[in-house]
Amino acid sequence: MSASTKLQVIRVIETDLNQGKRLAEQKSLTVRDDQPGSNGQEGQLLNIYEQVQYQEILGFGGAFTEASALNFAQLDPKNQALLMEAYFDPELGLGYNFCRSTINSCDFSADFYTYDDTEDDYNLSDFNIEHDRQAIIPMIKAARENNEDLRLFCSPWSPPAWMKTNHRMDHGGSLRPECRDVWARYTARFIQAYQAEGVPIWGVTVQNEAKAAQGWESCVYSAGEERDFVTGFLKPAYEQAGLGDVKVFFWDHNKERVVERGLETLCNERSRAAFDGVAVHWYSGDHFTALDVFHRLYPEKIIIASEQCTHAEPDIPYASGEAYAHDILGNLNNWAAAWTDWNMLLDDQGGPDHWKDWQEANPEAWEAWRQTPLKTEAEIWVGEAPVMLDRRSQTLSFSSSYYYLGHFSKYIQRSARRIGSSCYSPLLETAAFMNPDGSVTAIVLNRSSQTLPLTLRWKKRLADYQVSPHSIVTFLL
Predict the structure, then answer these.
(1) pLDDT digits (tens, 9 = 90+) for 79-90
(2) pTM, to two decimals
(3) Contacting residues for 395 by C-beta, under 8 A, at least 6 apart
(4) Is 3 within a domain?
(5) Of the residues 4, 255, 284, 288, which has the maximum number of CB atoms within 10 A of its CB?
């Protein structure tokens, strides 16, 4: 509906798993004029202000990990088509349009791999992406058949072992100074090879979780090392390869240090010009206002939430959905332009992956990690994706996160702008967006155990709704 058209009704999309509602369209709300003296309206308003617009939204999606791709490859054609439609079809599915993939292996790969394991191959004579042609690229191409508007960004977990100070892909280590040039050219070759396969790459992050030395693929960069690598090697390599329009993001780690990392990374005009933005994860808590501080320091930089995932909680059917929606709303309300989930398809054991091999090889370290707060057996052993595969029956099941994600990805169009809003109660988490076609999407999350009344107010028009406990509602104005 055009913003210039007088609003008559409001469409309502609701997910309330306690009531069996999953992205279910409800009866439209009839609106009324906002007139003085209307009983009760002042105390339960969600105001929407189109006069103030904030960041442009790039999109929503998940990651083409090798785990997801291997699970996808074993599905029969019917279930493959179902999964692609469920995630990528803009009308029948979630309309995913902003996704991630990996450069070399990650923890959710079947094993360690790179595109050139030849020691000291500084000319990259043995570089090839044959590994990815087996499962990952076919899955990406299938996704693009359902949504041509898909943008893809890629992240490395580790360079090849021969490029690193510890001579292995796991347990951290750093990029050897003499390998900065070849590693920059390596990632450029990766982008070119994918483009030759018909898979364009929109952007890259320099390093997944640049501060972490993990028991799986990892590589540590200080802020200065990441800055100098990009300004001195990565950007020149991309320019020389004709890839100057590829977006480059730093940090790709948790939000609690995003401001300090920005101050060190973007400390001069050259480095500030070299990076298009910052990528963040959620694993250290909310820290939403850190994004607001970062934006105020660097208003021209794009913020993307590049990875977040959770574990299965079968006794709380809405747990992962609420966690996702809370994080999406917090990020979007603090200038994030995109939100990308982690694995798209895991099996019933939370895999395949190879990081559990590290558990067996390091029992003392594993036990110490297992005993840290907030670690449950479910979290340790079974990671959850929005869609899960039962290996025995070869059937797909949909987690609550799938439906909660749809409240954003289906109804916030690319190039929408977040607009102003205010709500009467902190028990309701809200955000509003003006789409390019002039329509407005307002999203309301109720994580409380009580039904909460709500009166939407926009353009001097009102409409009432009762927001059920543990539910999420999208209003289309």
Answers:
(1) 999 999 999 999
(2) 0.94
(3) 79, 389
(4) no
(5) 255
